[in-house]
Specification:
By secondary structure, the protein is of the alpha/beta class. 23% of the residues lie in helices and 31% in strands. The protein has helices spanning 6-12, 86-91, 112-115, 129-141, 164-171, 218-231, 263-266, 272-279; strands at residues 18-29, 32-39, 52-57, 61-70, 77-82, 99-106, 119-125, 149-155, 177-182, 192-193, 210-215, 238-241, 257-258, 261-262, 269-271. The strands form three sheets. Strands 10-9-8-7-11-12-15 form a seven-stranded mixed β-sheet, with helices on both faces. Strand 7 (119-125), helix 4 (129-141) and strand 8 form a beta-alpha-beta unit.
Amino acid sequence: MHTPTVEAAAALEPLLPQRYRVTRRCQELADTFSLELAPVDSPLACCGPGQFNMLYVYGVGEVPISLSGHSQDGVGLIHTVRVVGPVTQAMSGLEAGDMVGVRGPFGAPWPLAEAEGRDLVFAAGGLGLAPLRLAIEHVLDNRGRFGSVCVAFGARSPELILFRNILERWRARFDVSVDVTVDCAGADWAGKVGVVTRLLERDDYEPVETCALICGPEVMMRYSAKTLLDRGVPAAQIFLSMERSMKCAVGYCGHCQFGPGFVCKDGPVYSHADIGRLLELSEF
């Protein structure tokens, strides 16, 4: 009898994790770190900007984590993780050489092909910058295909600014606008103070021709979308990444039901035209 390889089985069974080895660990913030992972067997299918993988810590459990980057060889995966529970706590103790299981990719990516030719606004709050990072870098690597590009990022305080070096590198370019604000800061902070929605009131993008990509806490996304809608950006051109409680990633368990669908299958990236009504429902 023919026995399928691990790689073939994984291609047929989305619940079977593939083995990946930690090649590098980077502490981003006090409670946030990035893991670079290299495949031990055959690599999984390419994970697009906005999609997510399920990362499994053997003997502990698994969690959904959006892709935040690729290794230099283009094969390895980079995931940025905040410690919020037992699985991510165990994951924070992993070092180079340790093994994890990876399933994926899952979910809908950011609509970058559809956004070509338009002005682009990226709005990120806190860890929401991680799922947007690959999309921003794709746009900057293909700069001639897009109109003006604005990146608006908000953090609770200066010490919680994620990817500070990357933001500075983007800001150093002459073909993209990068604005950062914090909710509160001490006297030694010379930057902007206020909510990220204030950064979206700028007038250097053409609303009707703009595509907006938003990721962050739901309240931040709701008010960011409202600001853009008030500016005249069409609801069908505003996209949000919903990070609700995903467990199985294939629509079996029902943990991430959102209206008539499931975030893991129908999202995590949605058009505001499709979910705007749900976002306005209290305690939904």
